[in-house]
């Protein structure tokens, strides 16, 4: 496993992170979830990503139990706040009240006294940004949060936060967690250039485009039983790529992966890691062998000719519109 700095901060993260959206506490049994976490640790993954809202807070509980007994200083635990975690009006958003209460709930569930990275899971248009950033800064000063980041924010929103932080002396954002893959490249136009300039790293999710880039979804055929496309919690998010024109082009990546000595999944993960602004790529898994296979993408260098061939194959079906930086609300 290779490691990179998280943006311009001193924090090192594993090139491949383990995330538990749609798996822990919902899609797979706890014993299987623990087996995947332990496989990740065995393969050198030290960065673990979750959120309070995943599986209605159960994902954090499962991750906390899976990491119990692991030397705390040897892992980086990242979680998020924004989406509703209860029925009340203040059980959501980025108000000071919800941030403080959500963080304390996350700490209890994760069985830790601090998180390495606390992220605003979306931008909150109903709360003054100054209030949000001051609450984050207070948590940093209390030692309960080491670094702060955001997820799925636009370049303008990130720029606003940086300006306020600089003016008010708050800790700056060090990371952004966007969707990024061979098929979804919308951050390249505006988000990445700003973040490169400001020292913000990307921790990208869905590098496999919800599994589409593994090649297991075939044009003209129904999704495999038990796949992400058949899971009610994630099927809405994957639908945009289940068109035959997309699936046909994805199948054309198979010989390119074979030529490079990689599986299609390894090729897709290695592709996002070629972007120097990417600090880490998040993978999920329902079986330990998936973890062991995907981590082999760490450290892989793809030559310019192969990168060009990938662009030629996928070009007509790639989404690049910066206006779509923020993913649909079906993915918390």
From TrEMBL:
Family assignment from sequence similarity: Belongs to the shaker potassium channel beta subunit family.
Top-rank lineage group of the source organism: Bacteria
Gene3D superfamilies per the UniProt record, alphabetical: NADP-dependent oxidoreductase domain
Keywords annotated in UniProt: NADP, Oxidoreductase
Gene Ontology cellular-component annotations: cytosol
Name of the protein this chain belongs to: Aldo/keto reductase
Any single Pfam family the record assigns to this protein: Aldo_ket_red
Gene Ontology MF terms in the entry: oxidoreductase activity
CDD domains on file: Aldo_ket_red_shaker-like (cd19074)
InterPro entries recorded: K_chnl_volt-dep_bsu_KCNAB-rel (IPR005399), NAD(P)_OxRdtase_dom_sf (IPR036812), NADP_OxRdtase_dom (IPR023210)
Domain annotation NADP-dependent oxidoreductase: ranges: 15-313
Signal sequence, renumbered to the chain: none
PANTHER family linked: HYPERKINETIC, ISOFORM M
């Amino acid at each position: 496993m290779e490691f990179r700095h998280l943006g311009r901060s001193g924090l090192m993260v594993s090139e491949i992170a383990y995330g538990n959206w749609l798996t822990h506490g919902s899609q797979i049994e706890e014993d299987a979830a623990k087996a995947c976490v332990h496989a990740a640790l065995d393969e050198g993954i030290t960065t673990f990503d979750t959120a309070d809202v995943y599986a209605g807070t159960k994902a954090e509980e499962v991750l906390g139990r899976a990491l119990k007994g692991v030397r705390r200083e040897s892992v980086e635990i990242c979680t998020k706040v924004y989406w509703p975690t209860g029925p009340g009006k203040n059980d959501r958003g980025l108000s000071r009240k919800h941030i403080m209460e959500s963080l304390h709930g996350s700490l209890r569930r994760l069985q830790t006294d601090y998180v390495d990275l606390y992220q605003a899971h979306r931008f909150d248009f109903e709360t003054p940004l100054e209030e949000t950033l001051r609450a984050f800064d207070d948590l940093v000063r209390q030692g309960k949060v080491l670094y702060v980041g955001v997820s799925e924010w636009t370049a303008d929103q990130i720029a606003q936060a940086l300006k306020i932080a600089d003016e008010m002396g708050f800790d700056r954002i060090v990371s952004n967690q966007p969707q990024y893959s061979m098929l979804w490249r919308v951050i390249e136009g505006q988000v990445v250039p700003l973040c490169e300039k400001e020292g913000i790293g990307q921790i990208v999710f869905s590098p496999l485009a919800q599994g589409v880039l593994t090649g297991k979804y075939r044009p003209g055929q129904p999704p495999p039983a038990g796949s992400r496309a058949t899971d009610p919690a994630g099927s809405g998010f994957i639908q945009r790529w289940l068109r035959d024109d997309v699936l046909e082009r994805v199948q054309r990546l198979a010989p390119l992966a074979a030529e490079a000595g990689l599986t299609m999944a390894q090729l897709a993960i290695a592709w996002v890691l070629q972007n120097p602004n990417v600090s880490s790529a998040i993978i999920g898994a329902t079986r330990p062998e998936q973890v062991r296979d995907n981590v082999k993408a760490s450290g892989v260098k793809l030559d310019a000719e192969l990168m060009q061939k990938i662009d030629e194959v996928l070009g007509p079906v790639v989404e690049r519109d910066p206006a779509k930086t923020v993913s649909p609300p079906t993915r918390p």
